[in-house]
Specification:
By secondary structure, this protein is mostly beta strands. Helix content is 7%, strand content 48%. It has helices at residues 71-74, 78-83; strands at 13-16, 21-22, 26-30, 35-40, 53-59, 62-68, 89-94, 100-113, 123-138.
Length: 139
């Protein structure tokens, strides 16, 4: 049996802007998931009384990142700036190897600071609704 080529996510990066500004203290990245709608086209003579479908519009879903929330830099945070920017922006997810990147345009839909508790780190989650195509390419 061949050895696995699996890898870990350590070293992945999340960037904002056409020339990406990479976000610091990222704990996790969830890339946008791609789905496709279907339209039922069953008719009165469909083979074997089976429903028929055709492919329709694609949707790139949402991306999200979780960061270590650092209050001292939050006011000048690139994530907060992106949240306060109207319209679509460019985003990049760089794979740990640095040889593959996922790029997409998106609208920031959330920037949520997590609970402040005595015995755990502070965190924040940033969410982006992808608009249009998602591109996966070699760097």
């Amino acid at each position: 049996m061949a050895a696995s080529n699996a890898d870990i996510g350590y070293g992945a990066r999340f960037g904002i802007g056409a020339t990406p500004t990479y976000v610091g203290e990222v704990v996790s990245i969830t890339p946008p998931g791609m789905t496709r709608d279907t339209v039922e086209v069953t008719h009165l003579e469909s083979d074997g009384m089976w429903k028929e479908y055709i492919g329709a519009l694609k949707d790139a879903g949402e991306a999200s990142i979780t960061i270590n929330y650092v209050p001292a830099v939050a006011a000048s945070d690139a994530l907060l700036t992106a949240f306060n920017t109207d319209g679509a922006q460019s985003f990049t997810i760089l794979a740990p190897s640095g040889t593959v990147k996922l790029t997409f345009s998106g609208i920031v839909t959330g920037y949520e600071i997590g609970d402040f508790v005595a015995d755990d780190k502070m965190s924040a989650t940033f969410t982006v609704k992808a608009t249009g195509a998602v591109t996966l390419a070699a760097v």
